[in-house]
Specification:
Blueprint lengths: L4 H8 L3 H8 L7 H14 L5 H8 L5 E6 L5 H18 L4 E6 L5 H13 L4 E4 L5 H12 L5 E4 L10 E5 L1 H15 L5 E6 L5 H17 L4 E2 L3 E2 L4 H14 L3 E6 L4 H10 L7 E5 L3 H8 L5 E4 L2 H18 L7 E4 L2 E3 L5
Parallel strand pairs: 1-2, 1-3, 3-4, 4-5, 5-12, 6-7, 6-8, 6-9, 9-10, 10-11
Antiparallel strand pairs: 11-13
Helix pairs in contact: 1-2, 1-3, 2-3, 5-13, 8-9, 10-11
């Protein structure tokens, strides 16, 4: 038998109207009481009447804004596929999803889109952020002052009041890459780390995890100064050309983000494929081609579709069903591929 609002009210010691306000996020209720009611409802297995909620939405619409940065990368296109699938699903329940795209990393553009979304009536926002103090302040303002929940995905923004994060545990991903590199790189070789954007927390964490773990398990390997390619193949190509010209015994390259095509182009041109071990991220078409050709030894995937899809669905369930995310960090799986299991 379905659990009723009155049963929840009786157990919580409050009125039915208070339960209704708590479960439907209508405010005018003590936050501690609201949290207790939601906990009791979850424990009792309460399932909201979705038909009734859909009817209510005709009077109070749900509009979710999504901001995608680095949209010009193949990986982020896969993230967008997940967003589009979620958009189609929630639209069947009467919700709206507004998507904005940014080429590269631009905190000012992200902030401008957030303000534009607020003015257009968005009551929740999913954001691929960068590490920027003004952006962090803006997120906190939206959550605290405007009561607009914000979810971060793919990359996080440390210390903000965002609702939760959806994406890879990038520090652990970097450590996993270092473990793989330690098994295949030659003794006393030199390893180059090419990162993406210095303001992207995910890129920074991968690099940090890789450097820490490789130093710990292979102290004989020399780590060269880290370089930034800003998700650009041309920049990555030039970085590797310079490394090959100036560095003897270049034995390995780890990329935290995009730029694989530029790296592999140089490696193949100089006949170094297989001799210089390459580990990178993301199971995109070009990356997989280089993996099959043995120019890349390992790729680490992070389920981009789930990142985009879950960010929208978590916000929808919060607004539509009054369901809070189960945890603050919703990590996607770290998938390791080589040429044998691609």
């Amino acid at each position: 038998m379905a659990v009723t609002l009155q049963q929840i009210a009786d157990k919580a010691g409050v009125s039915r109207g208070t339960v209704d306000r708590a479960l439907n996020n209508r405010g005018r209720i003590n936050p501690e009481v609201e949290e207790r009611i939601k906990r009791i409802a979850k424990e009792m297995g309460y399932q909201p009447n979705r038909a009734g909620r859909a009817l209510a939405m005709s009077r109070h619409s749900i509009r979710i804004g999504v901001i995608l940065q680095s949209i010009d990368t193949p990986f982020m296109q896969q993230v967008k596929d997940g967003v589009e699938a979620a958009k189609e699903e929630v639209q069947r329940m009467g919700a709206e999803v507004e998507i904005k795209e940014i080429g590269g990393i631009d905190a000012s553009a992200a902030i401008a889109y957030m303000e534009e979304m607020r003015e257009s009536g968005c009551n929740a926002i999913a954001l691929v952020p960068s590490e920027d103090e003004f952006l962090k302040t803006t997120v906190d303002t939206f959550v605290q002052d405007y009561q607009i929940p914000v979810v971060t995905f793919n990359s996080d923004i440390a210390g903000s009041k965002r609702l939760c994060f959806i994406g890879q545990d990038t520090l652990q991903s970097g450590k996993a890459a270092a473990g793989l590199m330690s098994e295949i790189v030659c003794t006393h070789g030199k390893v180059l780390v090419i990162s993406g954007h210095p303001t992207n927390q995910g890129h920074k964490n991968r690099a940090k995890g890789f450097v820490e773990e490789l130093k710990a398990c292979r102290p004989d390997v020399e780590l060269l100064d880290m370089k930034y390619a800003y998700d650009d193949d041309w920049a990555a190509e030039k970085i590797v050309e310079e490394a090959l010209h100036n560095t003897e015994e270049l034995a390995g390259i780890y990329l935290t983000a995009s730029g694989v095509e530029g790296v592999c182009k140089v490696i193949e041109h100089y006949g170094m494929a297989g001799r210089v071990k390459v580990i990178s991220n993301d199971l995109t078409g070009k990356n997989e081609e280089y993996l099959k050709k043995r120019t890349i030894q390992f790729l680490l995937g992070q389920d981009p579709f789930a990142q985009g899809n879950n960010s929208v669905m978590i916000l929808f369930h919060k607004l539509f069903d009054g369901i809070e995310p189960d945890k603050e960090y919703n990590y996607t799986e770290i998938v390791i591929k080589n040429r044998y299991n691609i």
